[in-house]
Amino acid sequence: MKRYLFTTPSSVKGTIKLPASKSISNRVLIINALGKGTYPPENLSDCDDTKVLIQAIAQGKQLINIMAAGTAMRFLTAYLSVIPGERTITGTERMQQRPIQILVNALRALNATIDYADTEGFPPLHIQGGVLEGKELTLQGNISSQYISALLMIGPVLKNGLTVRLSGEIISRPYINLTLRLMNDFGAEASWTAADTIYVAPVPYKSLQFTVESDWSAASYWYQLAALAPEADLVLTGLFHKSYQGDSRGAEVFSRLGVQTEYIPQGIRLRKSGDLPSRLDEDFIDIPDLAQTFVVTCALLNIPFRFTGLQSLKIKETDRIAALRTELKKLGYLISEENDSVLFWNGERCKPQAIPVIHTYEDHRMAMAFAPAALRFPSIRIAEPQVVTKSYPTYWDHLRQVGFGIRIETEIKFPKQTDSSASLEN
Questions:
Q1: What are the φ/ψ torsions at residue 188 (nearest 5 degrees)?
Q2: pTM
Q3: Can 289 be counted among the known catalytic residues?
């Protein structure tokens, strides 16, 4: 198993050309394809998730393997339902364990023809695409926003349009709003008609020239590095103050952790303010992809925290709540959870492992959230570091650019850990 270990700089300085937004890229690809766009979107993300979407749309194969790309699985399931033809969509072993029944049931309610090729409620899926009528759907608001976005994006091509009513608490509203803004950019008529209801008119998409902005989720790891480094002066290109991306709110949260944001013509500049809070309480319902970054950052800064709104973390690339608790324990931090939706830490510590090996669970955000911990734990190793290709393929190159040394280990004899240090305390 490949591992990375690091040497770290005394200060983190440089200009980073961030990857394009995966969230925007993947939505624009689906919207552009549904609109039979003549202009290919520009500055698309070069991450794995976007690559498999590009291939699936362009190649039109009968068997589509999206590997570990959850966004691609959800978006393509809806997209293929309205594209004539018969196809099977599958993915990695972990992808075949990620539930998709809510989306399939919603599409079946629109008269889509979808069958489970193996286990009920999970990929692979066999899809017979065709013309769908459209109607009103009622869904729980606390489901993954990707299900909702997948349905909304096909709304303009349904004969009668689509009304989506969301019941209960609506999580990840910024991701839904991102989808609506992009749909409207491409000529659709889609909007909230009430606090819990979205209407999409049967108005077709138009072809449009579109350039994708940089990724605020990727920027969070540079904020984290700025917060943890003794000194920092970073320029991140291609980010805007009035961004479509909900994760841009991370800048405000990091301002409370001593990282200042200055908006400049190229993007943003990050500098340390030196001001730290006594604790941080935050609701992550609308920015769940930043949870790992902030959990690790606060622990390493010795800032107690209570983070709510994390219910979607259990159905991501891995169970991120369990993964965070397990891996932070290796660094000596005992993180607690409540109700599968809250993580909190009041300063409880245990003995850290001498040579902690951070497992990444096929989850790109585990690797990127823990790599900056090398600034505080020089002996840390990141296992299976290649997982970053899912969203940020140049992440390790960019770390080298600001002075990190990265060495590959493949066969290393590590000291045996006791059961108590290797297992998760409840």
A1: -75, 165
A2: 0.80
A3: yes
